[in-house]
Amino acid sequence: MRLTHLTGESAEYLGAREELRQAEIELMRHRERVADLRRRLPLGPIVDDYVFEEGPADLGAGDAPTRTVRLGELFTRPGRDLVVYHLMYGKQQTEPCPMCTMWCDGFNGVARHVAQNVDLAIVAAADLPTLRAHARKRKWTDLRLLSAGAGTFKYDLGSEDAEGNQDSTVSVFTRDDDGSVRHFYSVHPRMSDDIDQRGIDLLSPVWHLLDLTRKGRGDWFAELGY
Fold first, then answer.
1. 116-149 per-position pLDDT tens digit
2. Residues 200, 206, 212, 216, CA torsion sign
3. Where are the alpha helices (DSSP H) in the chain?
């Protein structure tokens, strides 16, 4: 199968490209099998209706008034799931994680599209003014920003240890008809003792664009200085 109309592609190139195409098809089908396994997870446990602190929806309106909002209130209507990204910022993480910042830059860009199907929120251990100040610098105008404060949400979901060290995590929740919230799925960058920083790669197009090139991703790391 030719993918271009270019002339001069050698038989060696065409053979290697066809081998790659078959591998890409296999990878696509494996991703779909993994997604199906995820969707067919049994019901997870009912969790506490955790409390967060939230500021005005308009990021440019300052940080007051603040209000408390419960986990169950983050679902905007019945039949929707809730995706929470745990931002590494606050407590022992005194500076916002550059990689988490990159994730949230991307989430902000697609938030309105995601909102057609699921609810999305960003939760950090940082106090609300500190979190919102960082968000203003990054222009996260379409993200729902929450401070977990002194609650146990991040610890219970494995994105914070007993000393307050932070880790990035993605958690998904569902809500029963009676309003009870259940944990559906969480994933961390660290997938095992020998696989580090790859568990949430699929959530960012940056890695995949770099992987299309000859150099690949290499040791590339997001920086805040842009």
1. 999 999 999 999 999 999 999 999 999 999 999 8
2. negative
3. 11-39, 98-114, 128-138, 153-156, 205-211
